[in-house]
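Weekly sync, protein design subgroup
Attendees: M.S., D.O., the rotation student, P.L. (late)

Item 1: inverse folding check
M.S. brought a backbone from last month's batch and wanted to see whether the design step gives back something sensible before we order anything. D.O. pointed out we never logged the input encoding, so this time it goes straight into the notes. Structure tokens as presented (185 positions):
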């Protein structure tokens, strides 16, 4: 059975990790979540649940404005061939969340370590990071160092990868994943 928002909160408490959680209407995309800018401080994320041709699973946790070139992402993260989005039933089975609520906190439900967690280097440069607490009706703010500690406590050693700049910039932007074409929150 998947952990609930309350289970997550208790787990963070046992780790001594302080967080703040704000409730809000359901948010499914980065565009929808941008309405909260100014109300919730810290870096906001987009999350991609992906699989490669050998069915290895990846959760990419990046700054909401990070340019992620899906055609070349497999090279950056060591995947076998091109990546595709994982199906909703696989997402629920492995991370215990549904589309629209994809989050780094889903690692609490991946008890077998099947999902590799990839974290944007630019994201962890921020003092605070915002993630859904397993539901898309709330946003939890956590110190970036504490997010990494949480991931490690769930048995996931996060792989830190530098994504090149915000979407719309740089030479790879033409093939970059535009904001809103995936399950970003």
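Designed sequence read out in the meeting:
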């Amino acid at each position: 059975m998947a952990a609930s928002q309350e289970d997550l909160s208790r787990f963070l408490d046992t780790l001594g990790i302080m967080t703040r959680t704000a409730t809000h209407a359901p948010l499914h995309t980065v565009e929808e979540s941008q309405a909260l800018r100014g109300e919730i401080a810290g870096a906001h994320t987009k999350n991609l649940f992906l699989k490669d041709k050998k069915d290895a699973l990846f959760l990419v946790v990046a700054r909401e404005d990070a340019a992620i070139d899906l055609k070349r992402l497999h090279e950056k993260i060591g995947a076998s061939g091109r990546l595709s989005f994982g199906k909703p039933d696989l997402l629920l089975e492995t991370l215990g969340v549904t589309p629209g609520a994809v989050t780094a906190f889903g690692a609490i439900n991946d008890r077998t370590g099947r999902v590799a967690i990839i974290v944007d280097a630019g994201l962890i440069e921020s003092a605070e990071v915002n993630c859904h607490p397993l539901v898309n009706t709330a946003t939890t703010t956590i110190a970036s160092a504490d997010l990494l500690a949480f991931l490690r406590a769930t048995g996931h050693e996060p792989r830190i990868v530098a994504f090149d700049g915000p979407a719309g910039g740089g030479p790879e932007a033409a093939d970059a994943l535009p904001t809103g074409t995936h399950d970003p929150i």
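Discussion: The longest strand covers residues 43-51. The two ends are 22 Å apart (CA to CA).
Action: P.L. to compare against the previous round before Friday.
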